[in-house]
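Readers of this paper often ask what the protein records in our data store actually look like. The remainder of this section carries one protein's record, kept here as part of the documentation.

:::
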Amino acid sequence: SSTSVCDAMAMARIRRLDTSVSNRIAAGEVVQRPSSALKEVLENSLDAGSTQISVSVKDGGHKVLLVQDNGHGIACEDLAILCERHTTSKLVRFEDLEDMHTLGFRGEALSSISFVAHLTVTTMTEHDKHAWKVTYNQGKMEDDGPKPCAGVLGTTILVEDLFYNVPTRRKALKSPSEEYGRILDVISKYAVLKHGVSFTCKKQGQNKPDLQSLGRGTRLDAIRAIFGTQTAKSMVEFDGTMEMGENDKTDASCRYEGYISNANYVGKKTNFLLYINERMVECSPMKRAIENIYSAVLPKASKPFVVLVLSLPPSHVDVNLHPTKREVGFLHQDELIEEICKRLEASLFVSNDTRIFRSAMRDAQIDTMLGVNPSQLAAGNEEVDALGNSSPTAQLEVSTQRAKAGGDHKLVRTDARIPLGSLDKFIKRPKRLASSITLEVDPSSTPVEVQDEEVQVDQHANLSRAVRQKPNPSQPSELSSVQELLCEVNKNSHKGLLEVLRNHTYVGMADGSLALVQHQTKLYLLDMETLSRDMMYQQVLRRFEHFNKIQFSIPAPLKELLLLGLDEEEEKGNWSTEDGSKVELANLSVKILLEKAAMLAEYFGIDIDSQGNLLAIPMVIDEYVPDWFNLPSFVLSIVRDVDWKEEKTCFQSVARCIAEFYRVSTRGVSLPTGSTEALSPLCRNEEEFLWTMQHVLFPAMRAFLLPPCGRERDGSVVQVACLEKLYKIFERC
């Protein structure tokens, strides 16, 4: 068969592609998604001298993309060739590219759109008595031609069913909400560039626009209208001029201006808006250089906001560099970047005479059970998405003065943001003697080697940061059942408890799995078994299909594990000889697990080979290993407690089984009374258990856990002391 393929390739002749094929290929380069189609139409509207542009969107631009402007319109005589390739009013000769002042010039935008969507154009010039409406297909005007209709001065472009004839591209598009976000991003950037033009954007059917610019005022006013007052307050204006090409024949000057964020601005990602000769473009080298300057000023997690407008001689700019005109080439790029960075750095450090440190609002407390009205929580809560990521919705200036705290009895002397384990460097820890231990599932099976490292301060410090450095996948599973479960977790979260867990200070372990933490002036007792079970369940849903795995060096026989699990059930009184033979139950359970092995491996990271051996289990929390004593019960629960019939119930029950296995357990801490020597390698040193709680589980809980409603009433979180009340007791003494 390979020979026939080679022969066919050798016999293939070069042929001219059909026009419709080549046009659709070219359209795919220009129109990549709804936002790129909008960008092309917006540029045409701006070139037409529009001062008002309104955009209406349905289903993220998949179904409908409507752009209406009040520009000079299109002459009726030009409508016949409007959507043919390379028809334009902005370019006549190739040399005109050296003096290009318009955003568009190729004449490909509307043509490309007409090849991948249904396009309707309604236009009216100042000389027309009525508007003209015409539809296009595959770059050609429909047979009936332009039709007179009512209208206003300007042009309305209606794009429907984008990529209806390119199913692969349509399937590759993101969700409607994400595509709509990209559309808003494009419009917001043009609104800052053309601050004299009024932009509005809304979803079809809505009355209130999601984005609206004033169309008057300065560029800073546009930034305020689009990105908010707080962003505008952080902006610092800068400008300058640079002489270029002093040693050659290209002498010319470059004018640059814009706004940069000061040291008090806090952003999650870099916002770099670059405009060259009124054209929105990208320049990766310049963006990296600016980020390097800010890295010395901003905290590690904060990113800058920069708006930069360059005015270069048109002959120095090559606009015909990228199919979507996203990038341009310009002369003296390195020298220009260096000059701009020097000027930006000077402006940044001059504005750095004052700093405001921001933190999440600290007045939020837990609700009635813990003594505070739930209505007080609204101002201080964090918004949490289905992936467990949080973003503060309110910010305050932080002060260390006792007067602002309200006195000593309200003064909080700890900071939840101090890295956990920072005091470890002052503590000399004893070294553990054993270099390796073995874990035996059964005396007759081959031992599994488990590495045991020497406890070192530096390793602990790095490990305590590892959980924070490895976030959950940015996108959850596309399965609707998993997304529904994540939405349930998010909706059922308790905002008051979330504030306590996000901003607590770890005190220590009180007894067994009970831990003490401080939040503001209150001391709380946490049931880590319950809270860790909640966190593990949520993490299984967030890492669904994206698990790292804990591999067994030697396979663990499922049958032996199931027999051990049945023995435990018999000791608890949950099984008797009347329920059947243990061996038969174990064999039947192994058969069920083998049937579900592919699903368990793909979705949950539980690997089972064809021989009925357990090869790997999922890593739910980085650097955390579950209690091996519970492994037999875990395998048994997968068979006994999972409903395999309905998808959502199945995923939910498997996630709960994994959460029960991974929850905090003190069963294997130190040697239990009466245990045999064969089980001793499974037991954890108490110091290791305490260290894992402080440096692994609590940072993970701070980052990932959304505490469910009801945990404030079932004893999982209990307030045991309050500083204000203690002061009253001391005063009486």
